Each structure stands twice: as structure tokens, then as C-alpha cells.
Amino acid sequence: MSTSDASNPATADRSLRGLLFLLATIAGVSVANIYYNQPLLDNFRQSFPASASWVGTVPAVTQLGYAAGMLLLAPLGDRFDRRRLILLQIAGMCVALIVAAAAPSLTVLIGASLAIGVLATIAQQAVPFAAELAPPSQRGHAVGMVMSGLLLGILLARTAAGVIAEYFGWRSVFGASVVALLALAVVIILRLPKSQPTSTLPYGKLLVSMWHLLLEHRALREASLTGAALFAAFSIFWSVLALLLAGAPFHLGPQAAGLFGIVGAAGALAAPLAGKFADRRGPRAIITVSIVLVAIAFVVFGASAKSIAGLVIGVIVLDIGVQAAQISNQSRIYALKPEARSRVNTVYMVAYFIGGALGSAVGAAVWPAFGWLGVSVAGIVFASLAAWNHLRLPARAEVLG
């Protein structure tokens, strides 16, 4: 923001809102790339019939790549100008998407998907950027606005991918993302200011410091494992849904699988409410309720192998549970060490997406062997793991970290 903007509160507020909207868009458009492939699995199976049994690997390696990108790239935002990092990652992402769109084999698609996952961590530069731009009195609102953009990107990615694939083919999904990212890059160059680095630690020490944070804070370890287990359950469902809908009795294409993302918008509506309840009742209580909701969702799924209505109800319950837990867990970990929020967030999100990759891999293994009932049982197992881990930490340990 310019000096003249800063001297005029109304103009400054409008300028800040515009920048936060841009950061929210950056977060949503970038993170969407790791979810585009989930409603396309049946399309991949048809395009690469010789490797059909390996299509579930695509979402798994994408999420594993995101976890790796979180670990290796996200901490750089404390050390370098985030604007430049965002533009460099967009350039790399466009290359990876073009390779995915032109992939002649499933092996090439898997490799491109890994790169897409690593580079999609652009979203994790946008959140701390918002905290830097906003004054302290508006910091919570700023971070919440960008997280809303990220959440909408997650929810609507499947819908967009399903619709585009239905009418133009699955390769067009990745091509459309390239166009969107290039347009976004132009706006970033014109509108987004440079950021100010907050650390002078060399890259190696920056990474090592995250390990020390994990050892120092028991609450961070507990939140990370709980979040990972819940996201594993979430990913099991979404990575297999397209395969369930493609078979009997539904015989539905990728558009139908993608439209379930709109149903998941209930999670986006629940997120701000979860934050308010976490402030009033404490985040641990909200996480406990969230775990119960995730377990209930998979019970509903288990009874809904032939029911669209049952699947819709289960999606709503699942997304509310997972998103409420996510907001509450982040509320907890940000209070542990305010001066190291980026690195604390990195530790948590690395674990979170490793859980997502594990969930997708488990879904890919369980689906052909045990069918939809096996997938539902696996989701309940991960919810149970989250419950055991969450409840074994005494509430008083939260204060001690």
C-alpha cells in the first residue's frame, strides 16, 4: 500500500481488502490443483487400461508431493520475498500441468502429479503474507479470509474438474488450470507488493528449527497426528468416490463426482462457526465433536453404497467434521509459539498432507479388495486413531505445549 493510502483509513481498508481477496484467490486457485485429479480416476483408467490398477496412485502422490513442498518450500517465506516465491512456483506449476495434460502414460502422469503437489504449496505462502499485510487488530480476519479462499478452492476443484472433463476430456482440466494460473500471475505482478523476510536463518537451520519445535511442543505433535488421521479419512472417501459412482447402480461420469464438491460447501459454512465456538468453548471440545462427526459420516457411507441421498448426507457430515477440526487445530498451534507461526504451521500441514496421501493410498488398496464397505471401515479406523490420539493428551498439557 502506498503512503497516500496509509494516510487515508478508508482507502487503506479498501486496498487491504483488495489484497486479501487477491491472496485468497491465489490460495484457492493454487491448492485446487491437488484435487482436480480425484473425480478423474475413471477417465485415467480408460485412457491407460494397461495400468488401470495404479490410477489411485495419482491422488496419493499429489498429496505426498504437497507434504514435501510444505516441508521444503513453505519455510522459505520467512527467508525470501513471498511475491517472488509465488511467481516462481506458478511458473513451475504451469510446466508440470502441461506435462500432465500431454502425458502419454500413467507413469508420466504420476510424475507430473508429484511435481504439481510440490508446487501447489503457493497457498501456504499466501496465508502468512496476509498476516504480514494486515494490522494486528485485523490479523485474525485477514488470515480467516485467505483460509476461506483456500477452503473454497479445495471444495470447488472437484466440481470444476468434473464439469470440464465431462465436456472437453480430462486433459483439458490441466490446460484450463494453466490459463487460470497465467492470468493470476499477471494480476500478482500488477497488484501484489513485495514481502519483508522475517528470518536470517540459513535454509538448513530453518528446516532443522521445525524439528526442534516438534520436539518442544507435545500439543503440536498431538494436533498434527489428529489432523493427519482425519484428513486420511477425508481422502479415502474422495479418492474412491469417482470409482463408486462409475459402477453399478449409478453409472455416472466425472461431472457427478465433481458436483459432490458443491455439497461439501457445508464445510466452508461451518468453518467460521467452528472458530467462534472454539473461542468460547475451547478448540479441544470442538475437535472431539468433529471426530465423532467424521466417524458418523463413514457409518452413513457404509449404508449408502447404492444411495445418492445417503452419500450426500455423509459428505455434508464429513466436510463439517474435517473443516471444524482443521480450524480448531490451527487455532491451537498458532498459540504455541507466535514468533514461529509459519514453521509451526509447516510442521502441522506436512503431517496433514502425509495423512492425506496415506488415506488415498489406503483407499486405492482397499477398494479393489474389499469394495465400498472396506473403504467405509477404513475411514472409521482412521477416525478412531484420531480419537485415541486426541483424548490421550490431558487438557492441562495444552497450556504447557
UniProtKB/TrEMBL annotation:
Sequence intervals crossing the membrane: 18-36, 48-73, 85-103, 109-130, 142-164, 170-190, 228-250, 256-273, 285-302, 308-325, 346-366, 372-391
Alphabetized, the UniProt keywords read: Membrane, Transmembrane, Transmembrane helix
InterPro entries cross-referenced by the UniProt entry: MFS, MFS_dom, MFS_trans_sf
Q: Which Pfam families match?
A: MFS_1
List the molecular function annotations (GO) for this entry. Answer: transmembrane transporter activity
- Residue ranges of every copy of the Major facilitator superfamily (MFS) profile domain listed in the record: 16-396
Q: What is this protein called?
A: MFS transporter
Q: Which organism is it from?
A: Paraburkholderia panacisoli
Q: What is the lineage of its organism?
A: Bacteria, Pseudomonadati, Pseudomonadota, Betaproteobacteria, Burkholderiales
